[in-house]
Design a protein that fits this description.
By secondary structure, this protein is an alpha/beta fold. The protein is built from 6 helices and 7 strands, in the order ααβαββαββαββα.
Length: 192
């Protein structure tokens, strides 16, 4: 993790000039990842570091909404993947579903089944195990969602939140900045 660095516009200009000079002397065969365009970071990388990775992120669709809310609170998560009676992916329930479909309508969470308010799998957008973090973020931003199930074909693999993806991007950018700084300072670039 990089420490806090305070940049003035003069320092940024000097760093930019150094980086540009260093890049002019880097052989063409050297791969340099430009800030914001790294090919690294798959959605699976983010999943492996997610809090969802450590827990059972599924809940039966026949459970009460109250049980889902208990799990949201206990695990400090905002969504759970729902499963049918055969244990297969059937949808997703989120805190937003609770607010919009329960609290605002005066429904009772102990009496309402998850399957009465969740987003059914046919309407759920998901990421493929082969998707990059950037692709997953694009999906989430386009659809205005905060949680994204990950699938391999028709098999559910995991779920990530937008926070998980942002953490992965920040880590990648810190590595890129460190490598470019090393290059600019003549230390050589580490593998990016």
């Amino acid at each position: 993790m990089l420490g806090t660095i305070s940049f003035t516009s003069r320092n940024l200009l000097k760093l930019s000039s150094c980086v540009n000079s260093a890049l002019r002397i880097v052989p063409q065969a050297t791969k340099v990842a430009w800030f914001g365009t790294s090919d690294k970071g798959s959605v699976i990388d983010a999943w492996n570091k997610s809090c969802y990775y450590e827990m059972d992120y599924t809940i039966p669709e026949d459970s009460s909404v109250y049980e889902a809310v208990e799990r949201f609170s206990a695990y400090d998560v905002g969504a759970l993947v729902t499963t049918d009676k055969d244990g297969k992916f059937s949808g997703i329930i989120s805190e937003r579903d609770y607010i919009k479909k329960m609290a605002l309508l005066g429904r009772k969470s102990k009496e309402t089944k998850i399957k009465d308010i969740y987003v059914h799998s046919r309407n759920v957008v998901s990421a493929s195990v082969d998707d990059s973090v950037e692709k997953a973020m694009e999906i989430m931003m386009t659809k205005s969602i905060r949680h994204l199930p990950i699938v391999d074909g028709d098999k559910l693999v995991g779920i990530v939140s937008i926070k998980d993806l942002i953490k992965e991007v920040v880590t990648d950018r810190e590595q890129t900045i460190r490598s470019l700084s090393d290059l600019a300072l003549g230390k050589g670039a580490s593998a990016m």
